[in-house]
Amino acid sequence: MRRPALLLGVLLVAGCSIAGGDRDGRTTVTFRLWDDQVAGAYRRSFATFETTHPDLHVDVQVVPWADYWTKLPADLAAGTSADIFWTNTSNFGLYADNNRLLPVDPVPGWTKSVVDLYTRGGRLWSVPQLWDSIALYYNRDLVTAAGIDPAALAWDPAGTGDTFRAAARRLTTDSAGRHAGEAGFDPERIATYGFNAAFDSQAIVWDFVGSNGGTWQSGDSFDFADRPETVQAVRYLVDLIDEDHVAPPAAETSTDGDKTLRLFTQGRMALFQSGSYHLRSIQEGAGFSWGIAPLLKGPAGRVGVVHGVAAVASARTAHRDATVEVLKWIGTADGQEPIAEGGYAFPGVTAVQPAFVDHWRRRGVDLRPFLDSGSGTTFPAPLGPRVGAGETAYTPILQEVFLGRIGVAEGLRRAQDAGNAAMAG
Q: Which candidate, 143, 396, 175, places its Cα nearest to that of 291?
C-alpha cells in the first residue's frame, strides 16, 4: 500500500472534550460529517487504519446537513464536538479565528485549491478531503434533436457573442411542441426546459458572475452591487427565467434546491450546469443517454467555482495524539482511497484522483470537463469569519430578485448592505 511521508504537525492547544472516550480498552476518536454515503467509505478506510493502530478506534458520526450548522457551533462552545469534523469554506473562518481548531502543516500532494481555501492568517487549518467543480450536463437526445453542440455555447449580456440564449429557447418546448419565443408558445405549460437558471450560488450565479469578469467579495466585504459586470450577469439569469422562460420559475426552485436536478433526470431539462457532486444522482436517476460538456463560456472565458470540503480537528480534543494519527491517515492516498474508488467525489489527495476518474470511466462517463474546470480560471466562493451570517442575511433578498419582485440593481444593493451589516456583527 502507498505510504507517503507524513509531514503533518499539530500545535498543541490546551482543552478538553467529552466527545471521544475509551472503547474495549482502545481510545476512541470521533469523526463527524454530513453525508451518509461517504460515511460508509470512511468506515472502510478507518477499518484499514485500525489494523495498524489496534489501540485506536474511529467512531464515524453522521449529522444531516439540515442540522449540521446549528449543532456544530453549540457543540464547539460546550466542548462536546467531535474530535474531527467536516467543514466548508463558509463556516471554518470563525472557528479558526476563535482558536477552536488545531492548525496543521500542509503535505505535498494535497489539492492546492483546497489548501488555499482553508489557509487563513498564514496557517492551514484543515486536511483536504473532497473537491468539486462545475460543468454542463446534457441530455444527448434533446441536444441532438435540436442540432446543438453543448460544448460550443457562449453567453454574452451584450448579445453580440451570445449563442446560448437562442439554443436555450430552441431546447425549451411547451406541451404543444412549440419552442420558447415562437408564436403561441405557452410558458404556463412547459414540457421541457432548456436550462437550470436559478439562484444557485455555486453552480450558476458565481460562475456567470466570474465568466463576465465580475466579483462577489473584496476582502471580508461583499462588493457584488458595486460591479457592473456582476449586475449584468445576475440580470441575464433573471431574464432567462422571467422573460425567455427557458428555466423553471424561481417560485419552484427557491424553495426546492433539487427541483432542477429532478427535471433533468426526468428528461424534462436539456442542459443542467452543476457540480461533480451530482454525478451519482444523475447516473442513478437518468433513464436516457447523457454527457458532460465544459461549463458555459462568458465574455471572460470559462470561469467556475471550485469548492472543497475539509476535515478539521477541535482544539479541545481530549485525545490529541490519537486525533493527530487519524488526521495523518485521512491525508494519505490509502486513507482516501475508499472515497475515490467509490466514485463519491474528487479526493483531496491528488495521488488517488485517478481512482475516482477510473470509477466513472468504467461507467462511460468522461470527467475531463470537471478536471479542466478545476484547473482553469476559477471564481472564489466567499470566505471570512462571518461570511455565513452575511449569506444568511442576503439570501432572502436575492431570492426576491430572482422571483422578479425586486429590480436586479436595487436588489443587489440591498442584499450587499444586509450581508455586510451581518458580517460586521
A: 143
